[in-house]
Design a protein that fits this description.
The structure holds 2 protein chains of 2 kinds. By secondary structure, chain A is of the alpha/beta class. Helices cover about 25% and strands about 25% of the residues of chain A. Chain B folds into 4 domains: about 90 residues, Uridine Diphospho-n-acetylenolpyruvylglucosamine Reductase, domain 2; about 120 residues, 2-Layer Sandwich (Uridine Diphospho-n-acetylenolpyruvylglucosamine Reductase, domain 3), CATH 3.30.465; about 110 residues, Alpha-Beta Plaits (2-Layer Sandwich), CATH 3.30.70; about 90 residues, Alpha-Beta Plaits. Classes of the chains: A alpha/beta, B alpha+beta.
Amino acid sequence: MRVAVLVKQVPATEDVRIDDATGTMIREGVEAELNPLDLHAVEEAVRLRERFGASEIVALSMGPPRAAKALRSALAMGCDRGVLLSDAKFAGSDTLATARTLASGLRREGAFDLVLSGERATDGETGQVGPAVGRILGMSPLAFVSAVESVGDGRIVVRRAVEGGHERVEAPLPAMLSVVKEINVPRLCTLGGRMRARRAEIPVVGAAELDISDDRLGLAGSPTRVVRVSYPHVVRKGRVLSAKDGLDAALDEILGVLESRGIARGGERA
Amino acid sequence: MSERFNRITPEILAELREAVGAGNVVAEDADALESYASDEAGIMYTSMPEAVVKVESTEHVSAVMRIATRHCVPVTPRGAGSGLAGAAVPLRGGIVLSMERMNRILEIDPVNRVAVVEPGVVTNDLCKAAAARGFLYAGYPMSTETSFIAGNVATNAGGGRVIRYGSTRRHILGLEVVLPSGSVLDLGGRIRKETWGYSLMHLVIGSEGTLGVVTRVTVNLEPLPGRTINLLAAFAELDSAVAAVAKVVRAGLPVVSCELLDRVSADMAASHANAPLPCQDSTDAYLLVQLEGDSEERLDDDCERAGTLCLDNGATEVFVAESRTESAAVWGLRQNITEAMRARDPYCSLSGDIVVPLSAVPEMVGEIRRAASERGIVVAILGHVADGNLHPTVFKPEGMTPEEWTDCAEAYYDDLTAAALRLGGAGSGEHGVGYVKMPIFLRSKSPEELEIMRGIKRAFDPMGILNPGKMPGEGPVL
């Protein structure tokens, strides 16, 4: 079994800032790290090897040259090889162009039985790229996977987190899984793993080495246009009630508010 | 209740309300007062205040102190109540002076590399504000997310970065202090050296609210390090973990922290967080080592050297936590460990805070384990091991009453303190004496040293109204 994991380097911040003029994220001056949700995909790939055996786990990323560091994090946790797709022509890719590029990068690495990704990246927050890669490569796209029950005989059985519960799905291999963070607790890498990853060669693959024409790459190949950026306005207004005139008075006031909005009905109060 | 002091009368309450505003005075409300009756030393150490005054300014503090002096009412200053020695417990009732509403960061001065803050600023809020301006406030008590800066000053708090940056004393450049008379002292300032008479500021630091009330703090800021990286080393033998510490520390590596968690602490922390630690079954002790540096390449080299030293000295495996998520997870285990212990046993005693020279740590650990096993009690050992500062925590056995347990735990810590002193150490590295450790403190100091301390106390507080029953003491009261 061959397994690939798609990973992305994201800004290491909770304070994401957007350039109002371009509608893109400001990445300058912000430390970068492996997308925290991708850690679960890497962890699951390593666990799948431990459970079902795998001849190779390849980590693949698209990004600027410094994104090699995200691949090294994946190698430190147990992936065997890292491949970075990096080219100025990839700049400005939306989720569709990104998925095409990643799918082409995967095709270049040969056939995979399973491709894993995190549920979404903490910067773009779309969750579209993983499943899109699955569709492009004709794999069974399984999104929001919360457990892998079995892999074998050309089939996979997973649990998916859906609204209100879980769904058990059996699908033919090859399959593309985007995993939710509940699936596992990612391991810390060992010092030995980190030392190997630090010294590993990470090949960089450019546009010329992929089987996609330039007009389907980067900004040119991205139908998505950011028309306007706006911020949500919080219009909720809180009110603090004091119990200094007694708890009953405060409770009456709360009930009054609920009744006035039709949330509670007036009646006998205990 | 000592007859030396007066109870708070309705007239005194009226004066307090007049001075600071009625909304800042709590009295006659047992539920509200109870929150100020103890600190993190635990539910065994409780004494109710008669009133809580929530001051908003230095003028408020002066006014309250004048009223207290005039009526001879005891005053116990209080920060966040995160102390572990009972220093904030109002032993003789009276007024608890709460700093919770004096919580403004007044200034971050990049030229002089200082921050000026009010006493009730939460340590971590100061750290975040400094970091936003490219500075490090280097104090890092494990209670950083709750403790107030003036509480750090009062206990000369240590914590996780002492090996590189020193205890709170090293970070304090200036203090504004209100005396019991209501007068205000302005000590130190935005300067890093001063040979200009006795340093009253350094007397106030670590005085646990017995000499004056800190109303403004000027702290030193360091340049913010570019990067940090954490190693979690698992050892099958605690002794080899301790031996490895000495090697790592003297290798000239930029070690910021070096925390020890023994098997019992690690099990409790992991089970509380519902996140098993790697190699937990085969590990007797973990070392959590943090390194810092500006160059990524250099820090990677240092990380490999430190990790290899651990592996060469008995570590069975070394793990690395680098990202925000991973760092927060490993440090979260350490920071939440007292919560984990309290969740397991609300009577657990967190008072252990002995400090010994690093070379004596293996012998001290032996004493800690031997004394616990003799008494048939469970002990968890954690600590800032590179400083020789250990926090043994003991748990109440089934069937022991809380009263018996308090006596048992105190006798245990007395034994450990005696051992620490014999090994060239001290009874507290960072929590302070409070009143939990008053008996052994008084026994361990020479009459000459105690007399000088009492002279200092009289000079600051002639009527003895500030935090009575604590240092340098006439002995414990409860």
